[in-house]
Structure formats: C-alpha cells, structure tokens
Amino acid sequence: MNFNDLFNFLTELKKNNNKEWMDAHRKWYHQLRNSFIEWLDNLDDVLSEIDPDYFPTSGKKGINRINNNLLFHPHKPVYKDHFAAGLDQRSKQGDFYIQIGINDCELAGGYWKPDHKILHSIREAIDYNGEELVAILNKKSFKKTFGGLIADPNMLKKAPKGYTLDHKHIDLLRLRTIAVIHPLTRKDVLDSDFDKKIIEVYTEMLPFRRYLNQAVTV
Fold this sequence. Notes:
218 residues; alpha+beta; 4-stranded antiparallel beta sheet; 51% helix; 12% strand
C-alpha cells in the first residue's frame, strides 16, 4: 500500500471537496481504495493468526464509505478526509478501527455511544467484575499505549438507573462511550514497520476489547 500516494490524494481532495473533482479523479480513488482493501486483507490474515478469537473480516467488508452522510450531517463536506475500516468485526461497534487521514490517523477500539441494550450489558459486567476492567486500564503498558479511556462528553452526571453514586466503579458506570485510541503520526504510517506497530497496538488492546465484547455477547 502506497500510503504516501494516499496522503497526496486526500490532500488534493480536501482542496477540492466536490463531486466534480472526484468524478475527474475517480480512477485514482479506486486504485487507492483497491490497494487499501488488499492491505486490509493481508492485515486480516495476520491478525487471524495471532488471535484465536479473531473474527475474519475482509477488507471489502471492513472499509468505510468515503462519502459523508449528508442526510444526517448536511453541514459536513461531501467526502471524508480519511480512509478507514473496522476489522475483527463480529460486532461492528466493537471492532478494531483503523483510520488514515490527513488530519487524524489512529487505531481505536471499544464502544462509541452504543444502544441501550449494549450499554446495559457493559454496565452489568462492570458491576459484576469491574476489578478486571480496572486492572486492564491500569496496566502500565496499556496506559503508555492509550493514555486511558477517551474523554466522554456525554458522561452521565448522575448514577445510571439501578446504581448508586457510592458504587466503587461509578466513574465507569456513568460512561456512555467506553473506548480507547492510539494516535498515529504520518511518520508512523509511512514507516516500514507500520504493520508491526499495528499488531503491537492490537495485542495491547485485546484484553480491553475482549472484556467488552464478552459483556455484550454473554
């Protein structure tokens, strides 16, 4: 995958974020999209080998649309400024997310604003065995890789229904989004060891994602 070419494309797209420009450069876009899918397929194979619980997800299935949903977000530009995908996609919300963009590159995982049923299951797991999650979050290498959970601006001010403010894990129970992000630089993406770095981050994130995914599937 020629990520340098991908950055060049996204830079030009940002300057000309309209259908006319995209139509004129559709061949370039599809070449990059096909290369990105092939790269994802190779990564999918590697992750399948290192994680016995991995859910195979082809690049074609995992890749996100480059078009913004203007129906729900009419003020956004026509096209996104990044290529992105979700692998290990047993549950789409709990997948391993990869984003390569001109402004933000990242590896992420967890649950972003899950529906009530999923959030209820996560809270039940925290109530039953929150110590396991706390141990994962407090692991030195985990903190170094992710810095902790992402800030949740929609965090409840009060205790969720069925819990009290004096619960020992109330800060976790009040979350509406529970996820982590490992930011990447453009240098990281262009480095010859980029795939190796992805595997390292995936492995470090795995206990966190397993805890959450088990909570919503049990």
